[in-house]
Design goal:
- There is one protein chain.
- The protein is of the alpha+beta class.
- The chain is about 35% helix and about 25% strand.
- The protein has ten helices and 17 strands.
- The strands form three sheets. Strands 1, 2, 3, 6, 7, 8, 13, 14 and 15 form a nine-stranded mixed β-sheet that branches. Strands 4-5-17-16 form a four-stranded antiparallel β-sheet. The chain has a four-stranded antiparallel β-sheet with strand order 10-11-9-12.
- A hairpin with a 2-residue loop joins β4 and β5.
- The longest helix is centred in the last third of the chain and has 24 residues.
- The two termini are about 30 Å apart.
Length: about 400
């Protein structure tokens, strides 16, 4: 498979989360790549959840390896859906997050099928990862027995030299403040909901400080954080607002509990302000001594020619759903920058290196006896080809 061509083809679809027609086109394109193969293909659709595409080489519910990814992207200008290559960089929406690595997963699927690798392997591609992965939740709820010994997750980081072993728990909290309307010239006749909300956020900031590029940054970044994502309050300038709301994006490390967060919320919110946990999940925490992770790390270092470091990542990942099912999650991505921004790009070499590492890792996972047979068969056909070429 020409991975970069497939990545470019995927990037040309405006598959912004919720754009149903474009998402359907992406999935149709992907299915066409396996039209002449023995792949098992399931397009899971359960309204109102976003669709999920599952491609595998087995009817089993118990896999050796699954690769997770998504084909939805955040909104961008029209020109960003036209991939551009400049030297070793490929620019465009989805280049880094994460259509290039969806192409890597599809390449691995093709390789497993064409070489009849004796492992149970599959690729799961969701279409609403950028807005909560509710499609993945519905898919897994409908496939309660689905599990995998190992899950490969390329939707993390953006630096091929880092192997992620921890991701935070994303918790989204809605704050609502109710006040009493009054004329703007007589604030003592009303209760300003905007002010109530600002006071509550200020109290929360005593627990979850405000960090910024041009302000304070923490010395140790594996900490709980809070980002105020949306604020809405008031309709006109000369009326005291009687309602205000905010959506907070809170990321918790593995030692912080949802119960403690709720206690902090109750202690921080002033009278008239309430909270609602919109969604929460679980952190992904892998042991640095895990045998599969160490095997992957060693192999990746051989391919790359330099050591990998273990890192922690603040972002969430769909692989958390499999971590709670007992999977070893290996989180490793290629290099690039500008995720969700106008200048998004991916390092092309890193994409090809991740693809190489992934295939070599799959081959290394073969049961010892099967691996010997596979190697003998490969050598047999290689010798036939060499004899044929020499005869010609």
């Amino acid at each position: 498979m020409d991975i970069i061509k497939v990545a470019q083809d995927l990037m040309r679809f405006r598959s912004e989360t919720g754009n149903v027609s474009e998402i359907n086109k992406v999935f149709s394109y992907i299915k066409s790549l396996f039209a002449d193969s023995s792949a098992k293909i399931e397009l899971f659709e359960q309204v109102p959840s976003a669709p999920v595409l599952f491609i595998s080489n087995s009817d089993s519910q118990d896999y050796d390896v699954l690769v997770l990814g998504h084909i939805d992207v955040v909104a961008a200008q029209e020109e960003m859906y036209i991939p551009k290559i400049d030297g070793n960089k490929m620019y465009g929406r989805g280049s880094l997050d994460m259509k290039s690595f969806a192409a890597v997963a599809l390449n691995s699927m093709e390789y497993v099928l064409e070489h009849n690798l004796p492992i149970k392997f599959g690729v799961i591609l969701s279409s609403d990862e950028e807005k909560g992965s509710h499609g993945t939740e519905a898919f897994l709820a409908a496939h309660t027995g689905l599990k995998s010994k190992i899950v490969l997750d390329n939707d993390v980081g953006g630096d091929i030299s880092k192997l992620i072993v921890k991701c935070k728990n994303p918790v989204f909290v809605k704050l609502t403040a109710k006040g009493e309307a009054a004329h703007g010239s007589r604030p003592w006749d009303g209760i300003d909901a905007n002010e109530l909300l600002m006071q509550s956020i200020a109290n929360l900031r005593q627990i979850y400080p405000y960090y910024s590029k041009n302000g304070i940054t923490p010395d140790q970044k594996w900490i709980d954080t809070m980002h105020v994502a949306k604020i809405k309050g008031g309709e006109v300038s000369n009326v005291i607002s009687d309602y205000c709301e905010a959506l907070c994006d809170i990321r918790l490390i593995e030692t912080s509990s949802l119960k403690q967060l709720e206690e902090n919320l109750k202690a921080s919110l002033v009278s008239g302000v309430e909270y609602q946990i919109v969604s929460s999940s679980t952190p992904v925490v892998m042991s640095e001594d895990n045998e599969y992770i160490l095997a992957y790390k060693s192999l990746a270092e051989e391919v790359l020619g330099f050591p990998l470091s273990f890192e922690y990542e603040g972002g969430a990942t769909d692989s958390r759903a499999f971590a709670v099912r007992g999977s070893t999650v290996i989180m490793h991505s290629g290099s690039g920058d500008g995720m969700h921004a106008d200048g998004e790009f991916v390092d092309i070499n890193s994409v090809l290196q991740i693809a190489d590492i992934q295939i070599k890792f799959l081959e290394k996972l073969l049961p010892q006896q099967s691996q010997k047979i596979y190697q003998k068969v490969g050598s047999f056909f290689k010798n036939i080809t060499l004899r044929k070429n020499n005869a010609e």
